[in-house]
Amino acid sequence: MMKLALVVAHIHRKNDKRVMRTVNALAEVMGVNYYYWTETPEKPETVGNITYWPCFYKLSSNYRSRKQYETALAERISQHYLTDLVYFHHYSATVPFEFYKPFSKVPIISDFHEYLPDDFLSGVDKIPKWLRLLAGEHVFKGLCKFSSGLVSVNNFVLKTAEKYTDCPKLEVKNYGDYALEPAAKAERNKEIVLVGKTTRKLDRERPMLEKLHEYGFKITLIGSESKPPYDFMDYEPFLSYDEMMKRIGKAAFSLVSFDPTDSKGRIRLNYIHSSSNKAYDSICAGTPVIIADDFCELQNIRAKVVYRCCNPDLDAEFINLMWTRFYEDLLSQIPLDVRDCVWGAEKKNEFIQFCTDLIK
Known about the structure:
Blueprint (H helix, E strand, L loop, with lengths): L3 E5 L8 H11 L3 E8 L6 E3 L2 E7 L6 H15 L7 E5 L18 E5 L3 H4 L9 H18 L2 E4 L2 H7 L7 E3 L17 E7 L10 H9 L3 E5 L10 E4 L4 H8 L2 E5 L13 H4 L4 H8 L4 E4 L11 E4 L4 H13 L2 H5 L2 H8 L3 H12 L4
Parallel strand pairs: 1-2, 1-5, 2-4, 5-6, 6-7, 7-8, 9-10, 9-12, 10-11, 12-13, 13-14
Antiparallel strand pairs: 3-4
Helix pairs in contact: 6-10, 9-12
């Protein structure tokens, strides 16, 4: 009889890249009941080995509303208590342990997309940070202890979890889907692209970007939910993944931007140790990345230019120099990076083996 896995995406949409990557991989060796979040009513459907279970909820900042939804979802998935494997993406913000209780006799994998102690209730400014971090640490500790295996986007989370559990652990970064052959410099635009739906403030990058614009670089924001905040920036709408990869491949550089501080200027470990989808997509598209020196998780990428934010004129001059004199050297590093940046058969099979080894 075919084994069964239960995958719960929590507040992630049906086609979330990271979630669907795990669903499709597991579906190669077992049946999958996949619960995902949607803001529009949808009907369950079965395609191949995957049964899709939509979970309708209008996202709200109201705690009571969120708790009602998550409590009902925890009760709903408990019907699968006879499943062979449970895989949780992210976690419940209101009743995190309720999801784990029905599956005390089933191997559970927790996939941490964020550094939970710093991410927990991070959007609720009314809660003092020390209290939020304390609660987040409590939840993180509990979920680690409930889990038979841990998966995370970065090694920092897995290392932190070692003080709570010695269960098997696997790092699965936000890899690109495939790799393109890097275009030659002559085939590229003198352009820096910023790709992604998330709105970015770009306050600390602005002086550097303005200077780069003066050097003749076109600065283009692609796919953002909001238009560029500055007049010197161009804008292009959202693209499909395949079109986005081709578009990135035409640019000189891809800027991976993030703000390492919260609304009060305090450092967020969750941001510093985040695993950027677009960094890996850019390398897979054959384009070097520009990253800040405090973006810890990406410093091992070879095809990069690092800026420090403290001297925008010097940063811009250095980036322009890399384009005018050393760009071919940067491109030569792309093939060395690709193996660590793309989700290929080797990484997929390692993931499947990790999951199936937990099933007795």
